Amino acid sequence: EVQLVESGGGLVQPGRSLRLSCAGSGFIFAASPMSWLRQAPGRGLEWVGYIRSKSYGGTTQYAASVKGRFTISRDDSKSIAYLQLNTLKTEDTAVYYCARGLGVLRYWGQGALVTISS
Amino acid sequence: DIQMTQSPSSLSASIGDRVAITCQASQDIKNDLNWYQQKPGEAPKLLIYDTSNLETGVPSRFSGSGSGTHFTFIIRSLQPEDIATYYCQQYGDLPRTFGQGTKVEI
Hints:
The complex is a heterodimer of chains A (118) and B (106).
Chain A: E1 3-7, E2 10-12, E3 18-25, E4 34-39, E5 45-51, E6 60-62, E7 70-75, E8 80-85, E9 94-100, E10 107-108, E11 112-116
Parallel strand pairs in A: 2-11
Antiparallel strand pairs in A: 1-3, 3-8, 4-5, 4-9, 5-6, 7-8, 9-10, 9-11
Chain B: E1 4-7, E2 10-12, E3 19-25, E4 33-38, E5 45-49, E6 53-54, E7 62-67, E8 70-75, E9 84-90, E10 97-98, E11 102-105
Parallel strand pairs in B: 2-11
Antiparallel strand pairs in B: 1-3, 3-8, 4-5, 4-9, 5-6, 7-8, 9-10, 9-11
């Protein structure tokens, strides 16, 4: 059974940093591209970015709203994808989801709540 | 960026009704469109991929159609468990973008 479990969410002050983790199991993690998405309270879904598998160069792409502040990485030895969030703003408050895939997002984690507030 | 205009933003229907949701893309995305269902407090769930392909395990009352810029999602006979918000999502180009969502109520 495919499982994705996010962790690392919490309350953070504006301007600070946070790192989210997404642990995958039940599939060949190293061969899987991984995406991050978010959903602000009461709002719709927003794509954050993705990372390709190492066999496709491990390249990343980001939404304009987070480019230069957020970084996606992966540790295939641990089957974990990361989302490093820097220079956080109040508008980054959201539930952050990881998902397997680049376009068709068939499997999602349960989400991690990130709250940015002073 | 490709804008996805989804309508209606909400609808109220009765059990057994046919429900239709449309999604219009600001440019041609061929068939690179998915539909997701999201219930409160839960992650989105893939229902339809590549415009019209039913995800494994999803009831056949759900269907999708369209191509290019105009897409339609249908619930053939609304059931109580279908109360949720539905989103379209394009993956024809970066950034991936979603419709604003349609909240289906009874």
